[in-house]
């Protein structure tokens, strides 16, 4: 055996050794692949073309053909969501309370979730319209709402987030986080899908904004670039591991404004109408 062959065999043996795999290997249920980032991007592209026809997707859509175009896209969106949700459900080892987990059970659940997402599209469109209005009213540099839709990173990030949040609350694994991380890569805005955000939400400029998973944000709230709504500390269990799922991020009530590079940490409450100046460090509630 020559040196190259021996090196290859040794490397493969070490890389496939069970002790080296531990948390680095995942064998999915029923052999289904991981959710596809390419397909998830297609979902976002189709969603944007449904919510904002003429701005995304085919640009030659008109009022006479819009129902046809939206119908085709909604059908395609439903199919892709069902497929990707199924892949997400197969990612985790979850067994129903009664009976053995089967592939058909997961397929039916994925289809149900896809149905629910399609039913929520009008609501998503309505709330994103309020976000566009907030961005337009809050930025004198914007000539019109079309500019907001076509150009502003906050609307792109919020489109991903608002879909991801609906999937998150329905218990879909992995995919919500993938969707918001795709927006993070595209816009520099990092919103955890578990955050609860009201209507007329605006992120001006956007770069470097971080919104933690247990944040609760009211209506008509505005953030500027570099704002962090984060956790102050991470309580540990008896084994020294972080305790998951506890509220650890801020609550921002209605009409709050947080200026650039401010950091708001911990489960504190920023009261209605409070304005936090730039570069501030806030760890106590403000009323």
What can you see in these coordinates?
With about 290 residues, this protein is of the alpha/beta class. It contains 8 helices and 13 strands. The radius of gyration is 22 Å and the shape is globular. The N and C termini lie far apart (about 75 Å).
Describe what is shown at a glance.
By secondary structure, the chain is of the alpha/beta class. It contains 8 helices and 13 strands.
Mean pLDDT: 91
Q: Within the largest sheet, what's the order of strands?
A: 1-4-7-10-13
Shape: globular
Distance between the ends: 75 Å
Question: What is the N-to-C succession of helices and strands?
Answer: HHHHHHHHEEEEEEEEEEEEE
How much strand content do the residues show? 5-15%
Q: Biggest sheet: strands, sense, closure?
A: 5 strands, parallel
Rg is 22 Å
SS class: alpha/beta
Number of strands: 13
User: Helix proportion of residues, in percent?
Assistant: 40-55%
Specify the number of helices: 8
Low-confidence sequence ranges = none
